[in-house]
Amino acid sequence: MTFSSIPLIDWQALHSDTKPEALAQLRDAIFQVGFLYLTNHGLEDLIRRAHAHLPELFDLSDEVKQSVNMIHSPSFVGYTCLGAETTASRTDWREQYDFGSPGMKKWALEDPIWQRLEGESQYPTEHTKDLVEEYIQSSASLARQFVRAVAECLSLPTSTFDSFLGNMDRLKFIKYPPVAPGSQGVGPHKDSTGLFTFLAQDDTGGLQVLNKNGEWIDAPPIPGTLVVNIQQGFEAITGGICTATTHRVVAPISRTRYSIPFFMGVRMDLTLPQLEESAAHIVQRIPASDDRKKRAVDVPSEFLSPLYSCFGEAYLRNRIISHPDVGKKWYPELYERYSK
Q1: What rounded mean pLDDT belongs to the chain?
Q2: Crossing angle for the helix pair 44-58 and 126-153, to the nearest 10 degrees
Q3: Does residue 3 sit within a domain?
Q4: Which ranges of the chain would DSSP assign to H, the alpha helix?
Q5: Which residues form the Fe2OG dioxygenase domain (predicted)?
Q6: 184, 251 in Cβ contact below 8 A?
Protein backbone atom coordinates (compact mmCIF):
# COMPACT_ATOMS: atom_id res chain seq x y z
CA MET A 1 0.00 0.00 0.00
CA THR A 2 1.24 3.50 -0.82
CA PHE A 3 0.00 7.05 -0.27
CA SER A 4 -0.99 10.07 -2.35
CA SER A 5 -1.24 12.68 0.40
CA ILE A 6 0.10 13.37 3.88
CA PRO A 7 -2.30 12.57 6.76
CA LEU A 8 -3.23 15.12 9.41
CA ILE A 9 -3.19 14.18 13.10
CA ASP A 10 -4.87 16.33 15.75
CA TRP A 11 -2.56 16.35 18.78
CA GLN A 12 -5.39 17.32 21.11
CA ALA A 13 -7.48 14.38 19.88
CA LEU A 14 -4.81 12.11 21.36
CA HIS A 15 -5.71 13.58 24.75
CA SER A 16 -9.50 13.46 24.52
CA ASP A 17 -12.43 11.07 24.27
CA THR A 18 -11.47 10.41 20.64
CA LYS A 19 -8.07 9.03 21.64
CA PRO A 20 -8.66 5.48 20.29
CA GLU A 21 -9.53 6.82 16.83
CA ALA A 22 -6.62 9.26 16.91
CA LEU A 23 -4.18 6.50 17.90
CA ALA A 24 -5.41 4.40 14.97
CA GLN A 25 -4.85 7.34 12.61
CA LEU A 26 -1.38 7.89 14.05
CA ARG A 27 -0.55 4.21 13.62
CA ASP A 28 -1.59 4.30 9.96
CA ALA A 29 0.50 7.41 9.37
CA ILE A 30 3.55 5.83 11.00
CA PHE A 31 3.16 2.50 9.19
CA GLN A 32 2.02 3.66 5.75
CA VAL A 33 3.55 7.09 5.17
CA GLY A 34 6.29 7.98 7.65
CA PHE A 35 5.12 11.60 7.40
CA LEU A 36 2.21 13.47 8.97
CA TYR A 37 0.90 16.93 9.74
CA LEU A 38 0.48 17.60 13.46
CA THR A 39 -2.11 20.22 14.38
CA ASN A 40 -3.14 21.81 17.70
CA HIS A 41 0.32 21.08 19.11
CA GLY A 42 0.64 24.18 21.30
CA LEU A 43 3.74 25.74 19.69
CA GLU A 44 1.90 27.99 17.25
CA ASP A 45 2.87 31.31 18.84
CA LEU A 46 6.50 30.29 19.28
CA ILE A 47 6.69 29.24 15.63
CA ARG A 48 5.22 32.57 14.50
CA ARG A 49 7.82 34.45 16.52
CA ALA A 50 10.64 32.30 15.18
CA HIS A 51 9.58 32.74 11.56
CA ALA A 52 9.23 36.49 12.08
CA HIS A 53 12.88 36.58 13.20
CA LEU A 54 14.31 34.76 10.19
CA PRO A 55 14.42 37.58 7.59
CA GLU A 56 16.28 39.77 10.09
CA LEU A 57 18.62 36.91 10.99
CA PHE A 58 19.61 36.21 7.40
CA ASP A 59 19.97 39.93 6.65
CA LEU A 60 22.82 40.22 9.15
CA SER A 61 26.13 41.36 7.71
CA ASP A 62 28.54 38.85 6.24
CA GLU A 63 30.96 39.76 9.01
CA VAL A 64 28.50 38.72 11.71
CA LYS A 65 27.51 35.55 9.86
CA GLN A 66 31.13 34.53 9.35
CA SER A 67 31.88 35.09 13.03
CA VAL A 68 29.60 32.12 13.77
CA ASN A 69 30.46 30.09 10.67
CA MET A 70 30.23 26.33 11.15
CA ILE A 71 33.92 26.10 10.28
CA HIS A 72 34.61 27.26 13.85
CA SER A 73 32.73 24.32 15.39
CA PRO A 74 33.78 20.66 15.67
CA SER A 75 30.14 20.02 16.61
CA PHE A 76 28.92 21.16 13.18
CA VAL A 77 26.82 24.00 14.56
CA GLY A 78 26.79 27.54 13.24
CA TYR A 79 26.23 29.37 9.97
CA THR A 80 26.52 27.72 6.55
CA CYS A 81 26.60 29.97 3.50
CA LEU A 82 24.64 29.44 0.31
CA GLY A 83 25.81 26.41 -1.67
CA ALA A 84 28.25 25.09 0.94
CA GLU A 85 26.35 21.87 1.70
CA THR A 86 25.68 18.89 -0.54
CA THR A 87 23.08 16.13 -0.58
CA ALA A 88 23.20 13.15 -2.96
CA SER A 89 26.39 14.64 -4.48
CA ARG A 90 24.63 17.83 -5.59
CA THR A 91 24.75 21.35 -4.18
CA ASP A 92 21.93 22.41 -1.87
CA TRP A 93 20.85 25.98 -2.64
CA ARG A 94 20.15 27.17 0.87
CA GLU A 95 21.86 29.00 3.68
CA GLN A 96 21.26 28.06 7.27
CA TYR A 97 22.11 28.24 10.93
CA ASP A 98 22.49 25.00 12.90
CA PHE A 99 22.00 24.93 16.65
CA GLY A 100 21.99 22.25 19.35
CA SER A 101 20.62 21.75 22.84
CA PRO A 102 22.35 24.02 25.36
CA GLY A 103 24.39 22.82 28.31
CA MET A 104 26.38 20.06 26.63
CA LYS A 105 29.36 18.53 28.45
CA LYS A 106 32.67 19.92 27.22
CA TRP A 107 34.64 17.38 25.19
CA ALA A 108 37.88 16.04 26.68
CA LEU A 109 40.73 14.16 25.02
CA GLU A 110 39.79 10.91 26.74
CA ASP A 111 36.24 11.07 25.33
CA PRO A 112 35.26 9.28 22.10
CA ILE A 113 35.91 11.44 19.05
CA TRP A 114 32.24 11.38 18.03
CA GLN A 115 31.30 12.99 21.34
CA ARG A 116 32.61 16.27 19.93
CA LEU A 117 29.34 16.38 17.99
CA GLU A 118 27.61 17.31 21.24
CA GLY A 119 28.91 20.82 21.76
CA GLU A 120 27.84 24.38 22.42
CA SER A 121 26.07 26.40 19.74
CA GLN A 122 27.20 29.65 18.15
CA TYR A 123 24.72 32.54 18.20
CA PRO A 124 24.92 35.69 16.07
CA THR A 125 22.77 37.72 18.51
CA GLU A 126 21.46 37.42 22.06
CA HIS A 127 17.89 37.53 20.78
CA THR A 128 18.63 34.56 18.52
CA LYS A 129 20.12 32.68 21.48
CA ASP A 130 17.07 33.27 23.66
CA LEU A 131 14.69 32.30 20.86
CA VAL A 132 16.63 29.16 19.92
CA GLU A 133 16.88 27.92 23.48
CA GLU A 134 13.15 28.46 24.02
CA TYR A 135 12.35 26.74 20.73
CA ILE A 136 14.54 23.72 21.49
CA GLN A 137 13.18 23.34 25.01
CA SER A 138 9.55 23.54 23.88
CA SER A 139 10.07 21.29 20.87
CA ALA A 140 11.94 18.70 22.93
CA SER A 141 9.04 18.54 25.38
CA LEU A 142 6.53 18.03 22.57
CA ALA A 143 8.78 15.48 20.87
CA ARG A 144 9.08 13.35 23.98
CA GLN A 145 5.32 13.32 24.44
CA PHE A 146 4.88 12.50 20.76
CA VAL A 147 7.25 9.52 20.94
CA ARG A 148 5.25 8.16 23.86
CA ALA A 149 2.06 8.51 21.81
CA VAL A 150 3.76 6.65 18.95
CA ALA A 151 4.70 3.84 21.32
CA GLU A 152 1.10 3.64 22.47
CA CYS A 153 -0.25 3.56 18.91
CA LEU A 154 2.11 0.64 18.22
CA SER A 155 0.66 -1.22 21.23
CA LEU A 156 3.89 -0.80 23.19
CA PRO A 157 4.41 0.60 26.70
CA THR A 158 4.65 4.37 26.46
CA SER A 159 8.17 4.31 27.93
CA THR A 160 9.51 1.90 25.28
CA PHE A 161 11.65 4.48 23.48
CA ASP A 162 12.73 6.56 26.49
CA SER A 163 16.10 4.83 26.78
CA PHE A 164 16.99 5.77 23.19
CA LEU A 165 16.68 9.54 23.68
CA GLY A 166 19.87 11.45 22.98
CA ASN A 167 21.60 14.23 24.88
CA MET A 168 21.51 16.74 22.05
CA ASP A 169 18.64 17.70 19.79
CA ARG A 170 19.30 19.95 16.80
CA LEU A 171 17.51 22.90 15.25
CA LYS A 172 17.99 24.61 11.90
CA PHE A 173 16.91 28.01 10.65
CA ILE A 174 16.96 27.74 6.84
CA LYS A 175 16.59 30.19 3.96
CA TYR A 176 16.01 28.98 0.40
CA PRO A 177 16.42 31.96 -1.97
CA PRO A 178 14.81 31.99 -5.42
CA VAL A 179 17.00 30.22 -7.98
CA ALA A 180 16.77 28.82 -11.50
CA PRO A 181 14.05 26.22 -12.17
CA GLY A 182 15.14 22.66 -11.44
CA SER A 183 17.63 23.63 -8.75
CA GLN A 184 17.91 21.60 -5.59
CA GLY A 185 16.88 23.20 -2.32
CA VAL A 186 17.95 20.02 -0.59
CA GLY A 187 18.31 16.72 -2.42
CA PRO A 188 16.53 13.41 -1.84
CA HIS A 189 17.44 12.02 1.56
CA LYS A 190 16.23 10.42 4.76
CA ASP A 191 16.80 12.35 7.97
CA SER A 192 19.61 10.68 9.89
CA THR A 193 20.02 12.78 13.04
CA GLY A 194 17.84 10.70 15.34
CA LEU A 195 14.21 9.75 15.96
CA PHE A 196 11.72 12.26 14.52
CA THR A 197 11.81 15.61 12.71
CA PHE A 198 9.33 18.39 13.47
CA LEU A 199 9.25 20.93 10.63
CA ALA A 200 7.67 24.37 10.73
CA GLN A 201 7.18 25.51 7.12
CA ASP A 202 6.33 28.97 5.86
CA ASP A 203 3.67 29.37 3.16
CA THR A 204 5.98 28.98 0.15
CA GLY A 205 5.93 25.22 -0.39
CA GLY A 206 8.50 22.97 -2.03
CA LEU A 207 8.64 19.97 0.30
CA GLN A 208 8.00 16.67 -1.47
CA VAL A 209 7.79 13.11 -0.14
CA LEU A 210 8.55 9.95 -2.12
CA ASN A 211 5.88 7.26 -2.01
CA LYS A 212 6.36 3.55 -2.60
CA ASN A 213 5.45 3.90 -6.27
CA GLY A 214 8.36 6.28 -6.80
CA GLU A 215 6.08 9.32 -7.09
CA TRP A 216 6.93 12.66 -5.50
CA ILE A 217 3.99 13.78 -3.36
CA ASP A 218 3.69 17.45 -2.40
CA ALA A 219 3.54 18.31 1.30
CA PRO A 220 2.03 21.79 0.95
CA PRO A 221 2.06 24.17 3.92
CA ILE A 222 -0.97 23.95 6.20
CA PRO A 223 -1.14 26.93 8.58
CA GLY A 224 -0.59 26.05 12.22
CA THR A 225 0.79 22.57 11.59
CA LEU A 226 4.12 20.87 12.07
CA VAL A 227 5.26 18.33 9.50
CA VAL A 228 6.55 15.31 11.42
CA ASN A 229 8.58 12.51 9.86
CA ILE A 230 10.40 9.38 10.93
CA GLN A 231 14.18 9.53 11.00
CA GLN A 232 16.56 6.64 10.41
CA GLY A 233 17.17 6.23 14.13
CA PHE A 234 13.56 5.31 14.76
CA GLU A 235 13.58 3.13 11.66
CA ALA A 236 16.51 1.18 13.08
CA ILE A 237 15.09 0.92 16.59
CA THR A 238 11.88 -0.59 15.20
CA GLY A 239 13.78 -3.02 13.00
CA GLY A 240 12.66 -1.24 9.84
CA ILE A 241 8.96 -1.80 10.48
CA CYS A 242 8.49 1.96 10.83
CA THR A 243 10.48 3.26 7.89
CA ALA A 244 11.97 6.68 7.28
CA THR A 245 10.62 8.21 4.08
CA THR A 246 12.77 9.86 1.42
CA HIS A 247 11.99 13.52 0.84
CA ARG A 248 13.42 16.62 -0.82
CA VAL A 249 12.90 20.36 -1.19
CA VAL A 250 12.46 21.83 -4.65
CA ALA A 251 14.12 25.25 -4.62
CA PRO A 252 11.73 28.19 -5.05
CA ILE A 253 11.95 30.22 -8.25
CA SER A 254 10.03 33.40 -7.42
CA ARG A 255 10.11 33.95 -3.64
CA THR A 256 12.22 33.06 -0.61
CA ARG A 257 11.31 30.00 1.43
CA TYR A 258 12.05 29.79 5.15
CA SER A 259 11.81 26.64 7.23
CA ILE A 260 12.56 25.53 10.78
CA PRO A 261 13.23 21.81 11.31
CA PHE A 262 13.76 20.42 14.80
CA PHE A 263 15.60 17.09 14.88
CA MET A 264 14.96 14.87 17.88
CA GLY A 265 18.26 13.26 18.84
CA VAL A 266 19.08 9.65 19.56
CA ARG A 267 21.74 8.20 21.85
CA MET A 268 25.12 8.53 20.17
CA ASP A 269 26.61 5.59 22.08
CA LEU A 270 24.18 3.02 20.64
CA THR A 271 26.13 0.08 19.24
CA LEU A 272 24.99 -2.27 16.50
CA PRO A 273 24.59 -5.28 18.85
CA GLN A 274 22.55 -3.16 21.29
CA LEU A 275 20.42 -1.89 18.45
CA GLU A 276 19.84 -5.33 16.97
CA GLU A 277 18.91 -6.79 20.35
CA SER A 278 16.52 -3.96 21.17
CA ALA A 279 15.02 -3.96 17.69
CA ALA A 280 14.37 -7.70 17.79
CA HIS A 281 12.61 -7.33 21.13
CA ILE A 282 10.51 -4.38 19.95
CA VAL A 283 9.63 -5.95 16.59
CA GLN A 284 8.23 -9.02 18.33
CA ARG A 285 5.81 -6.83 20.27
CA ILE A 286 4.59 -4.60 17.43
CA PRO A 287 1.40 -5.99 15.87
CA ALA A 288 2.39 -6.03 12.21
CA SER A 289 2.12 -8.64 9.49
CA ASP A 290 4.88 -11.22 9.16
CA ASP A 291 5.41 -10.00 5.60
CA ARG A 292 6.02 -6.45 6.81
CA LYS A 293 8.48 -7.68 9.42
CA LYS A 294 10.30 -9.81 6.86
CA ARG A 295 10.61 -6.92 4.39
CA ALA A 296 11.85 -4.61 7.13
CA VAL A 297 15.04 -6.64 7.57
CA ASP A 298 16.51 -5.32 4.33
CA VAL A 299 15.96 -1.62 5.00
CA PRO A 300 19.35 0.10 4.51
CA SER A 301 20.50 2.50 7.21
CA GLU A 302 23.81 3.87 8.40
CA PHE A 303 22.61 2.90 11.89
CA LEU A 304 22.82 -0.75 10.88
CA SER A 305 26.28 -0.68 9.30
CA PRO A 306 28.97 -2.89 10.86
CA LEU A 307 31.55 -0.35 9.68
CA TYR A 308 30.96 1.85 12.72
CA SER A 309 31.36 1.13 16.42
CA CYS A 310 28.25 3.11 17.35
CA PHE A 311 25.79 5.59 15.91
CA GLY A 312 27.93 8.54 16.97
CA GLU A 313 30.69 7.33 14.67
CA ALA A 314 28.24 6.83 11.80
CA TYR A 315 26.72 10.25 12.31
CA LEU A 316 30.13 11.90 12.44
CA ARG A 317 30.86 10.43 9.01
CA ASN A 318 27.55 11.81 7.77
CA ARG A 319 28.47 15.31 8.94
CA ILE A 320 31.97 15.15 7.45
CA ILE A 321 30.58 14.17 4.05
CA SER A 322 27.88 16.87 4.14
CA HIS A 323 30.25 19.60 5.37
CA PRO A 324 33.67 18.68 3.98
CA ASP A 325 35.29 22.00 4.89
CA VAL A 326 34.40 21.53 8.56
CA GLY A 327 35.38 17.87 8.44
CA LYS A 328 38.76 18.64 6.88
CA LYS A 329 39.58 21.22 9.56
CA TRP A 330 38.53 19.32 12.68
CA TYR A 331 38.81 15.67 11.61
CA PRO A 332 41.52 15.55 8.91
CA GLU A 333 42.26 11.82 9.24
CA LEU A 334 38.58 10.88 9.12
CA TYR A 335 38.05 13.31 6.26
CA GLU A 336 40.74 11.55 4.23
CA ARG A 337 39.20 8.16 4.97
CA TYR A 338 35.60 9.11 4.22
CA SER A 339 36.22 11.30 1.17
CA LYS A 340 37.84 8.53 -0.87
Answers
A1: 91
A2: 140
A3: no
A4: 19-28, 44-58, 62-67, 126-153, 232-237, 272-285, 290-296, 311-322, 324-330, 332-338
A5: 160-266
A6: yes
